[in-house]
Amino acid sequence: MNRISASLVFLLFAIGGYSQPLKKYAIGKSGCSAYFYCNPGAFEYSKSPDSADVYTGECNVAALNYGLICVKLRTPMTDLQASEDVLTQYLDYLKTTLNIVSARGYGKGHKLKNKADTRGIIDYWQDKDGNNWKLKGWTNGKYIAVLFVYTKKEVPEANADAFLDGVVFPAK
Fold first, then answer.
1. DSSP sequence for 33-49
2. How many CB atoms lie within 10 A of CB 159?
């Protein structure tokens, strides 16, 4: 009986220690924000080759890495299909820079919080170092945001999904 009680206490402690609340963080001066399980600190700011504003941030908790790349497009797009195509091209570019060696394939047709003026793409990747990735890219024609979780272990779906759906674009 004591072993069962001790096991139950350990299990509850492990679950409680693992399930941290999401907290909202402003993404630099982009106007966007995102919910993280850990503090990403100050987002790094840079300019892309086409002069778009790029913000990046990442943090780690419980052997999981949570990250975000937010791009304020230099020229906003009104055609969401064209914007989704640009997002696809950006994800293809990230595959090369992140040394991705395998991918399941893009799942398209997602909408951020059921908003008709957004498009999202999901994928699962593995990099050359054996990390497993789950990511979602989002766009509203003015911004592109790519949120990702990676780990050497299996990506925990429920935690990952809450994070990956946690970007907030500025109001129009």
1. EEEESS---SPEEEE-T
2. 19
* Domain 21-168 class, CATH top level: alpha beta
At 40, list the tokens. 């990403």
pLDDT tens track for 28-63: 999 999 999 999 999 999 999 989 999 999 999 999
Q: What pTM, to 2 d.p., does this model score?
A: 0.87
Q: Alpha helix (H) ranges present in the chain? A: 2-18, 80-97, 157-164
Beta bridge partners of 34: 25, 167
Domain map (residue ranges) of the chain:
21-168
CB count within 10 Å of CB 93 equals 10
Give me 41's structure tokens: 């600190």
